[in-house]
Amino acid sequence: MFKFLKGVVAGSGTGVKDLPYNIGEPYSSAWGSWIHYRGTSKDDGSPVSVFALSGNNPQDGHLAAGRNGVKRLRTVRHPNILSFLHSTEAESLDGATTKVTIYIVTEPVMPLSEKIRELGLESTQRDEYYAWGLNQIAKAVSFLNNDCKLVHGNVCVASIVVTQTLDWKLHAFDVLSEFDGNNPAASGPMLQYEWLVGSQYKPMEMTKSDWAAIRKSPPWAIDSWGFGCLIYELFSGVKLSKTEELRSTDPIPKSLLSDYQRLLSSTSSRRLNTSKLLENSEYFQNKLVDTIHFMEILSLKDSVEKDSFFRKLPNLAEQLPRQIVLRKLLPMLASSLEFGSATSPALTTVLKMSSWLPIEDFNVKILPTIVKLFASNDRAMRVGLLQHIDQYGESLSAQIVDEQVYPHIATGFSDASAFLRELTLKSMLVLAPKLSQRTMSTSLLKYLSKLQVDEEPAIRTNTTILLGNIASYLNDGTRKRVLINAFTVRALRDSFPPARGAGIMALCATSSYYDMTEIATRILPNVVVLTIDPDSDVRSKAFEAVDQFMQLLKQSYEKMSSEDATGSVGIGISSIPGNASLLGWAMSSLTLKGKASEQAPVATANASTKISSSVSTPNLGVVTAPSTTMVHASSTTDLNELPVPVSPTSTDGWGDINGVQDDHESEKDGWDDIEPLEDPKPSPALANIQAAQKRPVSKPPSQPKPPVTSIKPKSTLKAASEEDDDLWGSIAAPAPRSSSKPLNVKPAASKVIDADDPWAAIAAPPPTTSVKPLSAGRGRAKPTAPKLGAQRINRTSSGT
Questions:
Q1: Residue 414 in 3-state DSSP?
Q2: pLDDT tens per residue across span 394-423
Q3: Residues in domain Protein kinase (predicted)?
Q4: pLDDT at 256 over 80
Q5: How far apart are CA 245 and CA 616, in angstroms?
Q6: CB count, 10 Å around CB of 406?
Q7: What is the DSSP string of 284-296?
């Protein structure tokens, strides 16, 4: 038969060559004379089921009944009735005989008997699944009998199929007929094709062909008997062979026994209506049926009921059959989340259930829904997505992250909620490796620049930690412009001790990206100052960092000493073994969660020991410093006090990430305008450290204080040059104390400033160039005598 079908699909006969489906392997069982095949669509390869019925004579009764089944299946629609897709008839020659084959294409299904063997459910889980399946078939039978006034005629295990979501559906409509109980005078069979029904499935009146009694019976009488046969076959596990076997009630559950007996009543008028069975039977009241029923009417529930249901569902799902949870409940939950009927607590349940799926199924069935949820405006949904991003982040492709996920997540960097800002920041640990260099440079780093001066100290600390972790994903130019300035100018000068500790650790973790000049002139001077930090943890980290960087400098020195005079010295050096542990510390600081009492300042780091302590928890209230509440610096801060490092590529902040010249202010990133935070009054020891950082040039106490009067007014150029002074001026030569005298100025034209003269301090400076008297050689009046020093402020070039 299978070879024949392959020939038909190849083009022989009429009708099948245009069938847009491929026919595959058959199942081992099917109802009646039909053969049930697996199939696929020729358009998109989606799975389908193909039912085929063949006959040698076009007038064969089986073919006539099959045509009736096709017509009924096409016109009757119900969620628990098999969905019709396509049908056709084909003729083929088998020698001298013409064969006619009817094809019905439906949604992909499997015979119930085979699905039960495949699932292998036992005890309570088996009973719960049977209850759910019988509930669905009872709804289908009730719909036919009570709503459509139709009689199926042969309800049994063979007439039930199971979908990919494990739903039971009724089919085999060959015998299906209208119930003509309103015509008691009719004497012929009410079911035209009742001869197709096995004698073991026929009720007594049907066995006797007492159609008059059947017409006087209720419409559900025949199918209620068939539903009883279905229950027996289901729980006994064997196909019914004779009617007498129905008297054996041992396999029937006690909660269903009384209903089973009423379904098989010998008096047709007393048989139980399947609609009443659904309403009154306690057998259908179990966890699985109640859960699926709630999901089906989820849109009708209020928010309180939804929240209560979804909070209980994770624990409930552990008790339900795993296959039903994955194939039935999980798709329903994902669909309800996507279309908005489910609340944010459902996301936790979806992610827990999806962890039981193979990675391939998760990427196909669940991941597209999660990606769509990032576009939701529900803040609770966004929080749930970010809190569990480690569960699905690795499955996201780089293109999806860069184009669909990150644009929505980036709005969280500037959110009013500090909790959401921190969750957004932490999510970058998973997503940053998948971002393009353009997105990292033009967007992410600018957001991190702002977060490094956030009002929440925990966020500032975690920003530094994140930068240390994603440094390897930045290009070389960006690393040189960003890392040192971010870690030294901001992190090491933060008033929050864990933030300073994180800055030290980040410098150590990224030591392989700095050349020896940067280590000696920009890193060590900043770190050494912290060896007298008020916080013992910061001091210990500072000493370890000094040892690490000194070791790097020694290695470089030994390398230079051993090289030939013509050899070139590399500016880079590989990271020492301790760097791996430092990166591990930074990662654990972002992901570790704990109680408030466990969130102590950052643990001491060792270049050869792994760090596992935490800086912050998702609850921002845990990592706080009551005496170090940070605020943004005022725009009127004195430029002479701004801590500006000397950099070969930038004079302030993180530098120009995009490689744009400094004079293009509109294209600079967030680190081009770093302003120190205006902190509350620090402790004396911390104030000494900050003073040493901000005033690198110190004058010997023995030198006399220079006079207040300036010889020359300060110009904007001078102010700009002072702003760009080297932060490490404390190791530079002191400024010259003598001032040059104005050239070409006659001694008589300038008056020596008396130290006791109260006006001398505000007197204008003498001119820097000599002025030739206007009266010289021109017969004009003599120049007026110089006036008092206090009036020199009105002196002009004309000498008046």
A1: helix
A2: 999 999 999 999 999 999 999 999 999 999
A3: 2-284
A4: yes
A5: 70
A6: 22
A7: G-SHHHHHHHHHH
pLDDT for residue 607: 33
DSSP codes joined into one string, 497-524: HHHHHHHHHHHHHTGGGS-HHHIIIIIH
Residue 443, φ and ψ in degrees, nearest 5: -130, -60
Task: Please state the φ and ψ torsions of residue 222, each to the nearest 5 degrees.
Answer: -70, -45
Nearest to 379 by CA among 351, 419, 346: 419
Please choose, from the candidates 409, 355, 328, the residue with its C-alpha nearest in 3D space to the C-alpha of residue 164. Answer: 328
What kind and span of H or E run contains 38?
strand 35-41
Range in 362-376, 475-489, 702-716 with the lowest mean pLDDT: 702-716
Instruction: Please report, for residues 165, 512, 582, 583, the alpha-carbon distance to residue 609 in angstroms, rounded to integers and kept in the order given.
Output: 51, 18, 9, 11
Average pLDDT, the chain: 75
| Rounded CA separation 623/569 (Å) | 45
- Specify the higher pLDDT residue, 200 or 637: 200
Strongest mean pLDDT among 24-28, 58-62, 568-572, 600-604: 24-28
CA distances from 288 to 208, 273, 285, 295, 317 (A): 41, 23, 8, 11, 9
Radius of gyration of the chain (CA): 43
- In angstroms, the Cα distances linking 116 to 79, 119, 157, 161, 231 are 21, 5, 11, 11, 14
Closest CA to 233 of 258, 252, 254: 252
The answer to whether 611 touches 556, Cβ cutoff 8 Å, is no
Would you say the C-alpha torsion 774, 777, 779, 784 has a positive or negative sign?
A: positive
**Phi, psi dihedrals of residue 131, rounded to the nearest 5°:** -65, -40
Question: Can you tell me the distance from the alpha carbon of 206 to that of 440, in angstroms, rounded to the nearest whole number?
Answer: 77
**For residues 271 and 233, what is the distance between their CA atoms, to the nearest angstrom?**
19
Q: Phi, psi (5° rounding) for residue 644? A: -115, 115
Extract the tokens encoding 456: 């929440």
Res 63 pLDDT > 60: yes
DSSP secondary structure letters along 466-502: HHHHHGGGS-HHHHHHHHHIIIIIIGGG-SSHHHHHH
Please give, one letter per residue, the 3-state secondary structure of 295-346: HHCHHHCCHHHHHHHHHHHHHHHHHCCHHHHHHHHHHHHHHHHHCCCCCCHH
Three-state DSSP string of 362-407: HHHHCHHHHHHHCCCCCHHHHHHHHHCHHHHHHHCCHHHHHHHHHH
Model confidence band, residue 99 (pLDDT cutoffs 50, 70, 90): confident
User: What is the torsion angle, in degrees rounded to the nearest 10, for the CA atoms of residue 261, residue 262, residue 265 and residue 271?
Assistant: -160
Single pTM value for the model: 0.66
- In terms of pLDDT, which residue wins out, 716 or 552? 552
* pLDDT of 734 over the 60 cut: no
Task: State the Cα–Cα distance between residues 698 and 581, nearest whole angstrom.
Answer: 38
Q: What is the mean pLDDT of residues 217-225?
A: 92
